[in-house]
């Protein structure tokens, strides 16, 4: 019986000794994560001595070199005071190694051996492994191996979503301009590996298209759009990921300015009558751009189209040639729509001028009569 108790006691002591002799662990942080292709992330190699003292440590890691590449093998932050080997790595083989010591020993639950900076070069799943060749030696004068467990890191590497497509239009090239074309054609550029696009045309400037593919093509045409502001929204899908939307503005105005009638006013200028043409109108959508005026002599044969010049109201007509003129006024809006109106100048401009200025003529006649009477009265007194 005593012999059995002695054996049990020895077994317990050996178990406790074995547990204490081999308890440290090396783990990676973050232990998991999700990163975009083209981005970088930091991975720390951490030692937990489980209450024991350690004076030497080695960490050997393996990573998938087709998906990850090391940018910097060490951030410079580490509890290691003496590097037994210079940190080494190979992006071709997917290996990295660190070995160092602490002559004074260290007892830590989260001591950073080193921090590695990785760049994501390809999407997929990646495992960064702590290899069995890693070790942690006790500060006991014998260099007892106490590394018991290692923990790997599992990361998801996601493709970077495409940028918002670059949108342009051959029919409505300038987003700030109005066009009288109600049949726009919209095009966009396609990045490599983009599989499809989702788009929508509406009256709202910040709409985001849904995640349902609409087309793999790079152009879309529309017919007979209503006048007003329109917004085209589009986003691209690349390796299953949808990117942010792009927005493009269409300004359509196919309606000419409001109708109007030019007014002609004849005045006396010495002996020959001169005329002024007044005009005014408005445009509801794009706004009025300018007026153009042409003058034709109706008594001459029309040999060619009239010449229009940009003008403002009131517009002074040239001296009458035949006294039978036609004035053509064009109102042009900012989309290029034209509203045209005409006014005729009478065939007897001199008489018309007299009629329009009858008040002044009568006043002048009365003045002359009064002057004549005054002269006659003075003559009679002189006799």
Structure description:
The structure is a single chain. This protein has 383 residues and is mainly beta. The chain folds into three domains: 21-158, Immunoglobulin-like (Sandwich); 167-252, Immunoglobulin-like; 263-358, Immunoglobulin-like (Sandwich). Helices cover 14% and strands 45% of the residues. The protein contains three helices and 26 strands. It has helices spanning 2-21, 349-356, 358-382, and strands at residues 24-29, 32-36, 40-48, 54-62, 68-72, 82-90, 95-106, 111-120, 124-130, 135-138, 147-151, 153-158, 167-168, 185-188, 194-202, 219-221, 228-238, 241-242, 246-252, 263-269, 272-278, 288-297, 309-311, 315-316, 325-333, 338-345. The strands form six sheets. Strands 2, 4, 6, 7, 9, 10 and 12 form a seven-stranded mixed beta sheet that branches. A five-stranded mixed beta sheet has the order 5-8-3-1-11, with no helix packed on it. Strands 15, 17, 18 and 19 form a four-stranded antiparallel beta sheet that branches. The longest helix has 25 residues, at 358-382. It is rod-shaped and about 155 Å long. It starts with a helix and ends with a helix. Mean pLDDT is 85; it is low at 5-20.
Helix content: 10-25%
Main sheet properties: 7 strands, mixed
Quote the beta fraction. Answer: 35-45%
**Highest CATH level, the class of the largest domain:** Mainly Beta
Known CATH architecture of the largest domain: Sandwich
- Shape summary: rod-shaped
